[in-house]
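User: Predict the complex.
Assistant: Input components as received:
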Amino acid sequence: MIYPFWDEPVGYGILMAIIAVLHVFVSHFAIGGGLYLVITERRATRADDQATLEFLLRLSRFFVLITLVFGALSGVGIWFIIGLLAPTATEALIHNFVWGWAIEWTFFVVEITAAIIYYYGWNKLAAREHQIVGWIYFIFAWLSLVIINGIITFMLTPGRWLQTGNFWDGFFNPTYWPSLVMRTGVSLMLAGLYALLVASRYPTSDFKARTVRYTATWGVVGLGVTAVSQWWYWKAIPAAITTRAEQIMPVPIHAMHYTIWLAVAIGGLLVVFGLLAARRLPTAMAAILMVLGLAWFGSFESFRESVRKPYIITGYIYGNGAELARTNAYKSAGLLARIQYTTGDDGSDLFEHSCRSCHTLTGYRALKPAFDGTDRAYIAAIVRSTNLLKGNMPPFLGTTAEAEKIANYLYQRIDQRPLGEVYGLQGEALGRKAYEIRCGACHILGGATDKSKSFAGLGPDELNAMLDMSAELGKGMPAYTGGGPERAALVSFLQELGKQVKR
Amino acid sequence: MNLPDYEFLSAPLWLITVLHILTLTLHFVAMNFLFGGVIITLYAAVRRRWDDPTLKKFVRLFPSAMAATVTLGVAPLLFLQMVYPKQMYAAAIVSGWFWLLIIGVAIVVYYALYRCALKAERSGRISKLALGLAVLGLLYISLTYSSVFSMAERPGQIHGLYARDQSGWMWNPAAGDYVLRWLHMMLGAVTVGGFFVGLIGRDQPGAFALGKQFFVGGMVLATLAGMAYLLSLLPYLAAFMHTAAIWGLTVGMLLSFGSLHFFFKRRFWESGLMLFVSMLTMVYARHTVRLLKLTGQFDPISWRVAPQWSVFALFLICFVVMLAVVGYMLRLVFGAKRHAS
């Protein structure tokens, strides 16, 4: 809140995902690819296998163009984007881990120098010296992962650091080792996938068959390491986080499931097209494997980013930049007192600093559809109890008056007609929509918070009475403020839910 | 709630400042080699001198120079964020899209330079266009950096700009703050580029003459732009005159002119060293101007210092290992070259 808020239309989650997922997809290849190149070169040199050495020369040009240019610059891009989207958290990370990053920089300098010398040294250096440079490249690329892994995992599981503030406690946090092994496995898998793309462009031949088979083995081994360590990683995350995610956070859980299905698909295709039908691996199939690899990484990063919710640094800074240590100050003095860059519109400033880092009005995780056809009082009640809604959102830390300012800001931007008119609905369809809008933000039908059982055997009068006292039914429940036709349709829908439970 | 406080410096301020100034100077050396080299090569290409072996050698070095510029730029950015996060992030957010576009532009520049390097034997129109594109890209990147980092020195201006527009499309309107400084830096880069062309082409009279032409001409123009920038700092000039930076700047200017003398005598080590030290003094002067502009609004001395000596010691060890391993690899390369010749 001490920083300005970047009001861009794309959505913070999308911007972050575009840069980060593409970066990790290349940067992990930069590690595994380095090992693939040097080990394969050593084998080929010993066997005096010129065809493989020419393949490696071709692969290393592809490797350099992808990793040195896109990999290196997208890595800087992550710095740029996190500073724009989450400046408070970035500042906290920089202050705590600056020497970690400085160490990583020294590895980065060696890595980049070695990559350039390795590529330009194919016909200039003696084979032994060339391989030494290849090993230097791989070792320092992997050491970069050793460092950055500590900072990435810290954000999800800061561990004892929250009590001690000690660098090493934060660095060697509970998910450090499983994540390091898993990312090493991913690096090996991606080395296989990238090299398969280059190998697939060769005409059908014995050379292609053995190169594809050898390369696919890298992919399968990497996938095996990834699968085992991913399970270890899941187990290393504190149960409080995973249990809550399973109960009320569909996004990370679905993302984790996708990683499993994508891993099965990658494994299956590697076995069939990489090991069994290696001679004829088409480029299109190698490209599909790359896309699946990218999708796997996208899903995993989506899991890692979203399971942290409501935090950006677990137990320390919320996703919207509010600091836990200042909770009492926010509650007593209000958020506006802390917001340093203002626009002159309190509602807008409060909305941006409280909600906008995860929600837009009409685009990414849009709020307008969630509030169209409702009213100020309902919106204010929802704002006050965000931490009770599905999705594990941060609590609203401002004052009641500030919640009303946000509600007013949103109300002016939504469709203010009655719900039935907004969607052109009536009867059961209107009742279902009213439930979705007014109740579904917490009570997901069929989910852990489904209250359908409590409607069993109730008639319209009892359900109406229940709506009248909804604000007293549970902590954070909003009063029911919907109009006549909407109310009647909702009552009818609730009654039907009750009947279904009874049946 | 008793949570750790993140508002601290994990090393004494002087140490971070020294590291920042040193790494920023190294970044400028690589950037000057790249930008100056691209400008001179483009000039030569337009004058139909593409076949000059020195320039071909230069073109082949551009991707490595770009890699060095990016890599050496990471460290000073890190140290800057550590001491001035509130100013820097705020300025970057207000110009968010321009700031983020730097990455996309840098990727395009990098690929354009690779295109030229991999086809260095050919002087086709595409190579010239790629070089032209690289120049435009580098100009955009440098101007955006100047705009954002100048804005970071005026928190009041950031407040005003943000109140007007929050979309990240605000460019620093106070051009007087940074255009002359930017021009001085660009001309300085051409100067240093001239030095490197002369150094690499020392055995070819044509290339040496071309390098000398840009070294001398660039230095005259850079000095004029630098003096104009100094005069534009009028409100801060009196205070600046009372800092050590004015002495540093004076020594730096003398060293710059001295480097010309040794360049003419083809004593490149002395000339290069003098040029490097003069750049160091200018970076220090720039740092001093930042502090003067922020006076009354922010003083880095106000940071709480809580050193992390164990991690810092590990950094120093890694730094020495980095120098040793890079030195070893360069020895392999130059050893192989000698062997081949």
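The longest helix of chain B spans residues 13-46.
Let me know if you want any component modeled separately.
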